[in-house]
């Protein structure tokens, strides 16, 4: 049997990691988004137009789902 260790931790569930996100500052709004984009300006919540603030969330590590980052073609 060939056992492939990519890391020293055993596989359990999807690994989670503190991920940079933008969180809506509106009190009744729980909108947030991943910080996949390099915002040069503070983004505004698309739902309530409040400013979004930088924060972090524990999120499962994902492959790039962002259409923003096209990989490799071209
Ligand atoms: Zn909002």
UniProtKB/TrEMBL annotation:
State the Pfam families in the record. Answer: YdjO
Q: What is this protein called?
A: Cold-shock protein
């Amino acid at each position: 049997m060939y056992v492939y260790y990519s890391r020293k931790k055993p596989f359990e569930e999807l690994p989670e990691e503190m991920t940079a996100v933008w969180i809506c500052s509106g009190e009744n709004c729980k909108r947030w988004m991943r910080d996949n984009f390099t915002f040069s300006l503070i983004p505004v919540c698309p739902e309530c137009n409040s400013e979004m603030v930088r924060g972090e969330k524990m999120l499962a590590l994902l492959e790039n789902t962002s259409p923003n980052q096209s990989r490799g073609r071209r």
